[in-house]
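Following up on my earlier message about adenosine-5'-diphosphate. Here are the inputs again, as you asked, copied directly from the submission form:
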Amino acid sequence: MRKFKTESKKLLDLMINSIYTNREIFLRELISNASDAIDKLYLKSLTDASAQVDQENLAITLSFDKDARTLTVSDNGIGMTADELEKNLGTIAHSGSEEFKEANADKQGDAVDIIGRFGVGFYSAFMVAKEVSVVTRAFGSDECLRWTSDGIEGYTIEPVAADDPAYRETCGSDVILTLKDNTDDASYDEYLSEYTLKDLVTRYSNYVRYPVKMMVTKSRQKEKPADAGDDYKPEWEDYQELDTLNSMTPIWKKHASDVKPEEYNEFYKSTFHDWEDPARTFTLHAEGALEYDALLFIPGKAPFDLYSRDYEKGLELYSSNVLIMEKCADLLPDYYNFVRGVVDSADVTLNISRETLQQNRQLQAMERRIEKKITSELESMRDTDREAYEKFFGNFGRGLKYGIYSSYGMKKDELAGLLLFWSAKNEKYVTLQEYAEAMPEGQKAVYYAAGDDRDRLAKMPVVKSVLAKGYDVLLCTEDVDEFCFQAMRDFTAKGLPKVYADDAAREAAEKAQADGAEAETEDRSLELKNVSSGDLDLASDEEKKAADEAAKANEGLFGAMKDALGDAVAKVTVSAHLTSADDAPSSVSAEGPVSLEMEQVLSAGPDAAQAPKATRVLEINAAHPVFAKLQAAEEAGDKDKLALYTSLLYDQALLTEGLPVADPVAFAQNVCKLM
Ligand code: ADP
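Thanks, got it. Here's what our run produced:
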């Protein structure tokens, strides 16, 4: 007996003993696996001439034995080798055991969630079975194998002898469940009933594209005997017949109005192995030179590996109901990689190898159209169901921002309108357009602050001072935010109230409006500005003048302070936005393209050594009492004191902005010296 790994055991235990009421979905999982196994064999036959597949007979078969209390799901798909049995069924959650450990650390909580996240579909069989065995023969192998497990400790793998009744002559798998004993609370006998199985197949697996067959009992009139008299009464008899239980009609070929939402949901869950309903379902029907149907889904939750390298995007590609590719990556742009779905086109040539497919111009045309459709669907979600949209954005928003960044801003027209950011003023998520519409007259830029903690950003002195001017600040807490903004450079807001060149023009317009003309609007390009950038340019002319004068008057002081800090800063100067004794005594800003936050992100990345650094400027609040202390130290020629004060002001400015100080020990010693 081979033992399950510890985390597998924990997960199994969690799942089997969870009070998950919806046990019956185990059948959907096994049928999906069977269907995938047939797909794999079928796809092999497209590229491998030796794989001769009898397409007519590809099928999934259900059978049960009431006395033995077994239920069997058979397929004539690709089967599994000993290695595959070990890898696929031996290590539960093989793809995500590390993540599982983490998720499992917090609490037993939502077992179902865990099941869904790690794709342990096969193991759901243990919710109803006390033992599961898989008799399988891989394509091209002359060996038949049996994997058996009670789902508790481990499993065994052994060869099946040719004289064993279970022996398979051809490739495929039989998954045999020995059902659990009935308890007071649960009867497992129902899975040994024709009626229940039929019902489960039509409910959960109706659109599986291979026939799901089962022997069913039917009743028919006996033939009338030749010598029957006038008083002959018709007699009935039972007989058995192999029936196909599922409709198999591709759901995407049906008119959307003829399909119930639950049917789409079941199709989505069984086809894409998700446990949650999709957040959005939509269809696309294209006519013209290239005809195709698409059925697309936005998942309700991000798969755990979405941001990992293993994640493969793509849509299922069919040609006239026949699967040609399971994950056709060319049909989706990277930033919509989370979309699942099916595309079916009679115009895409069958039997075409993958290489030629990739260069297929038809695919490119489809991709563009699909991309547009997804964008408009997301826009409509944003405008009609904000709550759902925010949830969507929480799941997938990062990818959209990344899409703008990685296209160097080329995709901003497509994507910028879909982004949400946290508004410091309204304490909720807003779009850039909403931000622009709420701007007071005279505001010229979109202001944002970037860092890893929203509360701390809200407390930054410069954020407060921008807010005090009546301007909103977007608080950005994702790594990618600032890179996305830098790639965008600006945002064009639509339909803002027109700004007139001079009073005369404004008055003329007001007059026209009084006479019934509509208020004029304009599209305006707004710069995206980090509040920590040196050239914030928010100070009034007077404030700027005052700052300039103070800087000039204190040239000697600032020179000495810069010397004290050495290369840490490019210069020390008077702040134009910290102007009252109540404001912070100092702040750090960055000049040039690299902001302080970007520096943080880049220096945590793989190329830390080469990462560009921000050009730092220490800004001093000339109205703050500490400024007088600095001046006094300078006048007294007390170099040590000046260096101490400067270093403290610099470090505390870094701390309030959530940035690390270069030498925490020195900082602590400096504070002590002061005391
Ligand atoms: P998932 O289907 O989400 O990958 P499962 O736990 O259901 O996870 O199955 C694990 C793997 O076992 C599958 O990916 C597949 O490779 C293999 N497998 C399961 N059932 C079959 C089957 N009937 N025929 C061939 N391979 C199968």
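One observation from looking it over: The chain has four domains: 2-217, 251-386, 420-530, 541-674. Hope that helps, and feel free to reply on this thread.
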